[in-house]
Amino acid sequence: MKNVFAAIFALLLPVLASAQLSISGKVTNTSGEALPGATIAILNPSLTAVADANGKYLFNNLKPGNYTLQASYVGYQTINKNIVLGANIVVNLSLSNGTFTAEEVTVSSTRAVKNSPTAFTNLSKKDLAKGNFGQDLPYLLSLTPSVVTTSDAGAGIGYTGIRIRGSDATRVNVTINGIPLNDAESQGSYFIDLPDLASSVDNIQVQRGVGTSTNGAGAFGGSINIQTTTRRDTAYAEINTSGGSYGSIKNTVNAGTGLLGGHFSLDGRLSRIHSNGYIDRATSDLKSLYLSAAWYTKTSTLRANVISGHERTYQAWNGIADYVIGDNTRKDNHTYNELGLMDTAGNFYKNQVDDYLQNHYQLLYDQKISDKLSFSGALHYTKGSGYYEEYRPQDAVANYGLNPVIIGTDTIKTTDLVRRLWLDNKFYGVTYALKYQPQTNLNMTLGGAYNQYEGAHFGDVVYTKESAGIGPNYEYYRDNAKKNDFNIFYRAEWHINKVLLYADAQYRHLYYNFYGIDQNQQNAQQSIELNFFNPKVGITYQFNEQNNVYASFAVGNHEPNRDDFVNATPQNRPKAENLKDFEAGYRTIGKFFSGGINAFYMLYKNQLILTGALNDVGSAIRTNVPDSYRAGVELDGKVRITSQLNWGLTATWSANKIKNYHQFFSNYDDGSLVEETLTTTTIAFSPSLTGASIISYSPFKGSEFSFISKYVGKQYLDNTMNQNPAGFGIAPDNLSNPYAANRYLKSYFTSDVRLRYNFSISSVKNIGVGLLVSNIFSKKYEANGATYPDIESGHLVNYNYFFPQAPRNFLASLNLSF
């Protein structure tokens, strides 16, 4: 009988060796409090779990062997733990407060935390990596609530845009490690200047509404707070390659030393991205570099970052004329770009490009002064230089400060020429935060920044068909600008039993000197000074660890941008905007469902709204309106249907209105202006309904199949809701083309499929393969546009331009980690 049992045991040994085991446990802080939502990862192979409402996690179907567990949570230090798995085991993980590490302190002063009375979404490095196939950063944020993204080239590589709650990128405050990214003059954030930044990002927090006080321009639609690479204790090297439709390719190399001698680490990345774009002549050639060196002691951290990016893109920012898209006789009416850029021989000018190099230097320092007091500060310097070059057929020499030239018997008043419009700028300053926690239920932060911007705007003529008196590299204008921006804020959070009381107040002072139109209608140096006070208060009631409700009130003030100032006289300059933001919501974290609902009412005074038109360099033209508002409800949630199947869903319904709006149409028949008065109208580019869905299924270890859907409702291109001035009908030629007859973007619903599979072999820590098929049903739609209506021959004529998005297209990726 013993021999029989021995034989059976011997036969079962291979089965026992391949037994499916589990690792479970609980994630807490050092006080023993659960950390629901903490991320727990197995690094070899790559697996991820999220702690439930009680901080518990579980990994099933594991084979015996050696594993490394990693646990992380915003505001706490990440820890690794090596496990030898031979049976089902319980591994509890305790995270230490991360207050005194650069990875958290540097950004914590500008961020909301778990119970803050603010609407926000956190995205981890793993969340971003799933969608990072080389598209611009806004595309990785497109599934967060109330977000709409656009692409000039049609496929997400090149110039892209982002709107939050209908507010464009000039109203979205963006910081990298607490340092402002928004351009000081245009106020936009151009992620194309930092290609593949996502490959060096550890986490992002997207706030909606005014949110918490931060550095840089005030948030009117939301904030995007980016934290770059944090400490990794072991050495690593990664190679990532993506490629697909429209000649798109991305090559990235990441490497790091890990922690050397317990004190020093060095991380670096090189990236190159190329795409021909979906739109004809919308190519992008992008390069970037990231370097980060850090020195750690027991009570301090010093980190130096260098982030460099160079972009060279063909100009596609004017969009496609409606008559091109509406002409069904064309073979592919969405991939034709008609910009009138041909020379007299009928050839398109090949160097119609935007070329810009930007280098960011950051020095971040954190110091633990005592158990109750800590300091975080940063010095930063950004240098940018570049131009956009364009061909101008038969341009008037008078536009370049010249008189007509007589050559022989000919008077040269116009000529074909090529010009470059340059921007050479620098931005530098200091940010700081002093954090004080006198007791466990009370913490305070005193923070702020002083930043200075210097920008030189100038134009050169680099070629003329006839000399016309223009020599080589003739400079025909130069505008210099300087902007000083000082802010200081104080924030306090006080926990009283189940109640969190929140107070936050910011003072901001601006000085802006620029070259613009003076009171005598002459160009001269001008200056303005503005002072803003932005208070915020809120309250959160914690029912238990899983559920809370909150309410808040915040005030935001925002200055006009450069174009608003330089194109107006002192008597008619646009006014600064004021926003009063009311928010209230409910959040829950459970084992099978986590999510929340948020209601908002944003009341504006003198909001600068888009007219729907663009100027000659693709920037939006705006005007003040005295009374307007945005009100709505946001929903977001994630359902765990089974251990392998999850469904994430977001939806926003909103009303975005202007009261008593006056639109003026130019009447070219008699040179007059025709006024149309609308009692209540919808704000341009503000859909009333947006939503996103992601269904993720993991049929086996290391795999994930995702079906992603996005809905964006109808958007008007201007603020007339497509209404025409009284007595003027649509021009007959426009009626035959539905694109020309309507000044709006149709609603669209698109679907993507994303596949990811990660596995390892003995010599490679992780091999990741991925496939993204976008717009799988080849929906024809336009995500952005512009309109220039006027009156001709007694009829309204719409000159519309749209940005068509690509039909079905794909990107595939291969990632090797060592």
Automatic annotation (TrEMBL):
<keyword id="KW-0813">Transport</keyword>
<keyword id="KW-0410">Iron transport</keyword>
<dbReference type="InterPro" id="IPR010917">
    <property type="entry name" value="TonB_rcpt_CS"/>
</dbReference>
<dbReference type="Pfam" id="PF13715">
    <property type="entry name" value="CarbopepD_reg_2"/>
</dbReference>
<dbReference type="Pfam" id="PF07715">
    <property type="entry name" value="Plug"/>
</dbReference>
<dbReference type="InterPro" id="IPR008969">
    <property type="entry name" value="CarboxyPept-like_regulatory"/>
</dbReference>
<dbReference type="InterPro" id="IPR039426">
    <property type="entry name" value="TonB-dep_rcpt-like"/>
</dbReference>
<dbReference type="InterPro" id="IPR037066">
    <property type="entry name" value="Plug_dom_sf"/>
</dbReference>
<dbReference type="Pfam" id="PF00593">
    <property type="entry name" value="TonB_dep_Rec_b-barrel"/>
</dbReference>
<keyword id="KW-0406">Ion transport</keyword>
<feature type="domain" description="TonB-dependent receptor plug">
    <location>
        <begin position="113"/>
        <end position="222"/>
    </location>
</feature>
<dbReference type="InterPro" id="IPR036942">
    <property type="entry name" value="Beta-barrel_TonB_sf"/>
</dbReference>
<keyword id="KW-0675">Receptor</keyword>
<dbReference type="InterPro" id="IPR012910">
    <property type="entry name" value="Plug_dom"/>
</dbReference>
<keyword id="KW-0798">TonB box</keyword>
<keyword id="KW-0998">Cell outer membrane</keyword>
<dbReference type="InterPro" id="IPR000531">
    <property type="entry name" value="Beta-barrel_TonB"/>
</dbReference>
<keyword id="KW-0812">Transmembrane</keyword>
<keyword id="KW-0472">Membrane</keyword>
<keyword id="KW-0408">Iron</keyword>
<keyword id="KW-1134">Transmembrane beta strand</keyword>
<feature type="domain" description="TonB-dependent receptor-like beta-barrel">
    <location>
        <begin position="298"/>
        <end position="775"/>
    </location>
</feature>
<protein>
    <submittedName>
        <fullName>TonB-dependent receptor</fullName>
    </submittedName>
</protein>
<comment type="similarity">
    <text>Belongs to the TonB-dependent receptor family.</text>
</comment>
<keyword id="KW-0732">Signal</keyword>
<feature type="signal peptide">
    <location>
        <begin position="1"/>
        <end position="19"/>
    </location>
</feature>
